[in-house]
Structure prediction request, 269 residues.
Amino acid sequence: MNGFSVSFQEQDGIVILKLKGELDAHTASELEAAFQRCLDEGKVKVVVDGSELQYISSAGLGVFMAFVDEIRERGGDIKIAALQPKVYKVFDLLGFPMVFDIVATVEEAIKRFQEPKATSSEN
Amino acid sequence: MSPVETYQITIPAATRYLGAVRRFVALHARAAGFSEQEIEHIKLAVDEACTNAIKHAYKGKESGLIDVIIHLYPEEFVVIVRDRGPGFDPSKYTMPGIENSIRERKGGGYGIHLMRRLMDRVEFKQWNGYNEVHLIKRRHKKRGTP
Prediction:
């Protein structure tokens, strides 16, 4: 069996999704369902706690790519926290650090949501 | 050159068997002397090749079979992922690019890119109705050898 689970927790309007186990083409639908639930409930500030994520394949990474645009469009973001080095490496190989906020701890991710946004002069 | 040892597992074309394939490959990669990081890379590359076979060659039809064959040579660890689906032309592959994927809200198309980044060599072969992906990792010299 490929063990994988997602648990939900909420703190100050921020949803923390804790991923456990192995995220592959078989289990990716569970992460899809979790992001969809966040959207359905209007909870668009999402922190993914990757401290207990043991493995990810491109099918798992694809779920982040498929959902982040809609979450950002609704004023939120997906911030990825506490990845183990072997799992971070896979995110890095696909260029995730360029387009996702990846931070060392869940606390730091939460803090980033609470910071006032820097104003941008870009169009 | 004939391989020193050969191991094989055959799975139905279904994603629920991916974990079993990873464990099979990890077991033999560890026995072949690879580091934990290299084992992770081999596992992921083989997972990506099997996932492509399940999704693209057999399009989710579980009646399809996938062979995962390990050939252990003195210098190389070779994993062959073999299916009987319609062939694939690797020269037509381009990586979608993460910003495009996000804009289009789609996440597929990264398997081959990962395989090429994780392994020393990746070869696609077709023969006798089979498609094969050969995933090759060089083995280390034994400690103490100059």
Observations:
- The mean pLDDT of chain A is 93.
